[in-house]
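Q: Protein A?
A:
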Amino acid sequence: ASDVYKRQEMTNPTVSGQSWEGLKKIGILIGLLLTDGYMNDKEYKIVYTGKSRILHIKFKETLQELGIKRFTEWKDDKNVRVTQVKNKMICKLIKKFVGSVKTKGNNPIELPKFFWDLPKEYLSEILRYMFSADGCVTLGMRYHKHKRRWTFVRRIELSSKNDFLKKELQKLLKTRFNIEAKIWKKGLVIERKKEILKFSEKIEFVK
């Protein structure tokens, strides 16, 4: 199996001697699981679901770089792609950096500590996959009381009902990229024009 997370691929190795490059790959995997996936650590199953073929490819590529070669793939009864791998080593690796990736039921979520130290270009890539997995750009309407008229409002949204994840991501965006996001009941929202421009410049969506 590949020992990618112990290679010194950059001059600044961090947590437990793991390289920034290796931590980025682990971060992408965790990010995808927090948005459109789940992990059964009792059966050592890691599952990614979603309609995007590109994100499934990235999920598999990331695991392959961590030494995983065999996957199970199918489409569920709603025609949604499912990619699954069963591997004890990867489950333990994920658990080492994040207590849980279970977001349902408002389960307490804390992002990996290395997210706060990771080079910005690596963190932006992790967030790019997270927003592409469970996010979108929407066009809505808002009524201005002072102007007495309706106006169109463009928003970037990341869907999530987990309060802990929304607060963690809100803090991360503000601390690392100076992007202001609002917490709504069903997700995290970037609404002001200048914040949307910052997101477009620093993070953006997968193309």
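Q: Protein B?
A:
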Amino acid sequence: HGCQSIKDGSPLLLRQGKVAEANLHYQEAARLRPENPEYHFNVGLGFINARRLSEAAAQFQEAIRLKPNYGEALLKLGMIQFAQDELSAAKETFTQARSIPEFAAEACYHLGLILYKEGDYEESAKQYEQSVALKPTFAPPFFDLSQYYLNQGRSADAVRILRIGESNFPDNIRILERLARVLATSRDDAVRDGATALTLAERASKLS
């Protein structure tokens, strides 16, 4: 019962802005019930808030050991590994997360970031494309992927991706502005559309 009362009290402390106290509650819960992966995950989040990334990673690893398909923990662990430049470990972690349907889109995106950092731009773009296909309501890939296509001089592909982004995020100023800019400045006559670019720019202006 003590463990349950600790667990129940922690979200209340978080809502009250008492992050450090909530973290202590979660740590005590994990100490009392070390077999519970959720407690280790919450302790890991607390360590992230305290910028203690190595300790956070250890908690996420323990959560994953207890629950191998713990998608949230895999994503958090992979992000820490990526931030610490442990690219090989991060790639392995995100590959594991990609096998879990609910987390595949986010995992593909992060694999794309790793591949880009490694200089494999084409494979990186494939991961971004897969992320968009799996979950078009997940925004980050639209920026990286459209920029890749623009860097390649493939404005038609950039527009294709940005239009998917616009349809899912009609109030996203960055997507609207980028799509407007591409339509206004493309050297491809089949892509350039000044009138639509102006309409998009006006929409973005009203939102800002």
